[in-house]
Amino acid sequence: MTSAQIIVLAMPVFLAAIALEVVVGLVRRRNTYNLADALSSLSTGLIFQLTGLFTKVFGIGLYTWAHEHLAWQQLPASALWVWITGLLLYDLCYYWLHRAGHRVAVLWAAHVVHHQSEEYNLSTALRQPGSGWLLGWLFYIPMALLGFPPLVFATVALIDLLYQFWVHTRQVGRLGWFDRWFCSPSNHSVHHAVNDRYLDKNYGGILMLWDRLFGTFAEEDDLEPIVYGTRQPLRSLNPLWANLEVYAALAHDSWHAQRWADKLRVWWMPPSWRPVDVAQQFPRPAFDLHRSHFAPALAPFQAGWAMVLFALALAASAVLLWRAPQLSDTTQLVLACAIVAMLWHIGRFCTPRAPAAR
After folding, report:
1. How many CB atoms lie within 10 A of CB 255?
2. Which of 219, 242, 319, 356 has the greatest count of CB atoms below 10 A from its CB?
């Protein structure tokens, strides 16, 4: 069974958990969902899964090649200690990828997708980038060089990813001792914050051990409510633009920078860095912690039609992901493009229209 097929089997569990979270939020009168925002997050999640059909060579493919040709040794996949150590090492590699994803602009261009939602709920967990495959694989090559088999790598990667689903909720509070050592809803909500005191903290996927060791841990403070999103907000429900906006901004700044060194530095400096000449010529709006949310409240007809379209896109994606091994690459590409076009239409349909000029 492929990892994509495992995700298909998990889809009903994800949707049931989201439905339960909505019900709990309504009962508690603490709803954390906006339908337009949730559909946008789920749409980027589907694009993430669809792109995975065509980018396996950058994940498991390159890992397998490195393991077969460059590994220092070949560790046995039958040994329990290999699996336990592999999961711990994967989580450490993920920590450094995650941290670099916040500190290196070209990596942030991919990871930003996961942070664009101004809500924090289980649909946010499924909001994943379609371009993480470009450079993310580099951070896991050390596991291949140490001899961890591809089967172990692929399995612990899926475990690490699936674990992080449940921590994206505001309906679960503090968990005492668990919060000290593990990624939890409280710890990970801090990671999604744009408040100064919380910014760029709590990168661990399963363990907070790495953040405590490397000085990036921050505890949630009841006196400072968390504000979610990004400091340069997306202001769009288009899942394609969500994946391209930071790449476009970096390309713009690189093109207009006068110094060649700056044209290159734009891509590797922290995301907030800009060449002085470009920042003066194209100033950005100042960061506003208390800005209004972009996602609109949908009218009943809009909500119903958007949900019907998304249900169709979800069903088509599930069929494609499940049947992909039996389909030609061309057929997969055509079907994936059709689904992405439908997701783009949903985002456009849900986007608030500017008032007509008089």
Report:
1. 10
2. 242
